[in-house]
Amino acid sequence: MLQILGKITSINVRKVLWTCAELQLPFEQEDWGAGFRSTATDEFLALNPNATVPVIKDGGFVLWESNSIIRYLASRYGGAHLYPAEPLARARIDQWIDWQIAELNRAWSYAFLALVRHSPAHQDAEAIEASSANWARHIGILNRQLEATGAFVAGPEFTLADIPIGLSVNRWFSTPLAHPSFPAVSGYFERLAARPGFLAYCRNGTP
Questions:
Q1: Secondary structure (DSSP) of 52-121
Q2: 147, 115: one domain
Q3: Cut 0.90: pTM above it
């Protein structure tokens, strides 16, 4: 059975859990810590030298990096409805998956660590304001995309891209800051609520 290493409070671990729910793929999950580079055991470092979660073990195959994991699972376990093989459709999905990790996550990092995690190292008021404004700007980009598709981030149907994007939108709404009106994003968030995996691993009270 597929093994998933990482605490379910981790947004990146929850990407994998939600993907498994969409694929109806059974798994075993173990609570390995997130952000534990200084205390990672030799056993864990042998699996992932970066000392980050999630890590999966699928038989003898070990894989880390959350976006690589969800692509692998969809490709291996009948997820063509989430991650089609057709190059143009797949490229559009990949674009938004990569945007989430490269652009959107960077925008919210400082504000989230300050306002939700209450990190002592992230309490500069100007930096919080700048991060919050940048976060809103990126949510605005997403809002325009959702206005164009009228449904989900890569088009009219739910795809693999909606898992990382949905988790980031949940984090946006869960963070105590000013939220400009983005009707398409709000509608999208409610649309995701029809999916059991979203309710279990995203909109479950964990930012």
A1: -S-EEEETTEEEESHHHHHHHHHHHTT-TTTS-SSHHHHHHHHHHHHHIIIIIHHHHHHHHHHHTS--TT
A2: yes
A3: yes
Q: Find the farthest-apart pair of alpha carbons in the chain and give their distance in angstroms, rounded.
A: 48
Q: Which residues contact 191 (CB under 8 A, 6 or more apart)?
A: 151, 152
191 and 103 assigned to the same domain:
yes
Which tens digit of pLDDT belongs to each residue from 164-187?
999 999 999 999 999 999 999 999
CB 149 within 8 A of CB 155: yes
54 upstream amide cis, omega within 30 of 0? yes
Q: In what order do the strands lie in the sheet with 55-58?
A: 27-30, 2-5, 55-58, 61-64
Give the domain extent around 92.
87-201
For residue 83, the one-letter residue type is Y
Supply the pLDDT for residue 161: 98
Distance CA 186, CA 150 (A): 12
Domains: count for the chain: 2
Q: Is residue 135 part of a domain?
A: yes
SS3 177: coil
Q: How many CA atoms lie within 13 A of 47 on its CB side?
A: 23
CATH number of the domain to which 52 belongs: 3.40.30.10
* Spatial separation of the C-alpha atoms in residues 112 and 118, rounded to whole Å: 8
Tell me how far the alpha carbon of residue 164 is from its chain's centroid.
Answer: 3
Structural domain includes residue 50: yes
